[in-house]
Write a structure and sequence with these properties.
8 strands; single chain
Length: 251
């Protein structure tokens, strides 16, 4: 089917035997490209090294809000290695499961770095149930003051219909993943139905939200086709065009 997984995590921090996972990935023909996303300096270094080893793998460098690190340390990776396959900065953002003020500073620094390197941002915005604050809305308020000049995506978007207009107005995309396959995914389904097809991306967040990247990406794709009442050929073309428009260094 040759789909693009716009967000996954292949690194030795997560997998005890990363080579086995990479062999499984490269044996499969249903995924044409993946964006392998860093969480801190070490995982960003590894995803960059892997992108230079595998033709179908691209890298995103970032400091996840729940990880430690200085976003500007990533500049040394960008300058040291072949950076032609670095397609984004991220994942970065706000997470209220363990919030601290440094998250805001790191997000602002990430925006500045992405603008400097002319790259889009991959945003992590998480608000656990029962928390009155809203990570999506705080991120958008920051964007209104510090605008990502090369676009952004809210990956694994937590459903919020009211904020979609602001995201699109600021040049953003919404990443949809395995959450739409859950039985209680009513709000996530409404997001897919309501968002413009030109602002939609699919992902797996493997292995965090997916136990089988290939099967889950295919299922997400088919579910999106059903929700948008669109044939698979047309949907595949839309999603591929969207991914290549935002992540313009994808080949």
């Amino acid at each position: 089917m040759n789909l693009i997984d716009t967000h996954c995590h292949y690194n030795s921090y997560i997998f005890n035997n990363l080579d086995v996972e990479l062999d499984k990935l490269n044996d499969n023909k249903n995924i044409s490209k993946i964006i392998n996303v860093g969480l801190d300096y070490n995982t960003s270094k590894e995803v960059l090294e892997l992108s230079n080893r595998y033709s179908n793998m691209y890298a995103s460098l970032g400091i996840h809000p729940l990880f430690k690190g200085d976003i500007f340390e990533l500049v040394s990776l960008y300058n040291k290695y072949d950076n032609s396959k670095i397609v984004a900065i991220g994942e970065v953002g706000i997470d209220y499961s363990n919030y601290n003020i440094n998250m805001i500073n790191n997000l602002i620094d990430s925006i500045k770095l992405a603008n400097r390197l002319k790259l889009p941002l991959i945003i992590h915005a998480n608000t656990p149930k029962g928390i009155l604050a809203n990570a999506n809305r705080l991120t958008i308020e920051i964007f209104k003051k510090y605008t990502p000049q090369y676009g952004f995506v809210f990956h694994s978007f937590q459903p919020d219909l009211d904020i979609i207009i602001d995201i699109i107005r600021l040049g953003g995309y919404i990443g949809i993943g395995p959450m739409i396959l859950k039985k209680n995914a009513k709000k996530s389904l409404e997001v897919v139905k309501n968002i413009d097809i030109n602002n939609l991306l699919i992902e797996t967040d493997y292995p965090y939200l997916s136990n089988n990247e290939v099967d889950n990406l295919t299922c997400v794709f088919k579910k999106v086709c059903l929700l948008k009442c669109m044939d698979e050929y047309s949907m595949k073309n839309y999603l591929e065009d969207n991914a290549k428009r935002l992540f313009y260094k994808l080949k």
